[in-house]
Amino acid sequence: MARRSKMRDLVFKIIFQNEFRKDVVDAVLQEVLSKEKSDSIRKDVERYVRGIYSHIDSIDQKISSCLENWTLERLSSVDRCVLRLGTYELLYEPDVPVQVTLDEAIELAKRYGTDNSGKFVNGVLDRLAKQYVPEEKWRL
């Protein structure tokens, strides 16, 4: 698994675990990162997780605005967490091309979600990107 793919996988696992645990996210973050040897991956994971939770209200609002006939609360935990990660990356990581974010989110959804998760995540993130992501990021 490539370095950035591994990093996204760890971020997904942390925010997914945080859906079910009563700990603060810092406890989950430290527990997962204690097993990671790469300093650069640990730093990126921490930046992403802290970024997701510091912007969670805006991220959830943007996801909700792109859902058709669904609410954020009705989504499976896997789909919700993948969408949060993808939305964060689209909006707050300027050096990551839109297509890379979409491809990586779809792969996470396929790996951890249902048979339909990849298509669902693709549709929502594509709609979100077209609505909220600046045009210059599409050209990276």
From TrEMBL:
One of its GO terms (biological process) is transcription antitermination. Involved in transcription antitermination. Required for transcription of ribosomal RNA (rRNA) genes. Binds specifically to the boxA antiterminator sequence of the ribosomal RNA (rrn) operons. It comes from the Bacteria. Residues 6-130 form the NusB/RsmB/TIM44 domain. Keywords: RNA-binding, Transcription, Transcription antitermination, Transcription regulation. This is Transcription antitermination protein NusB. The keyword Transcription applies. GO terms for molecular function: RNA binding. GO terms for cellular component: cytosol. Belongs to the NusB family. Pfam families: NusB (PF01029).
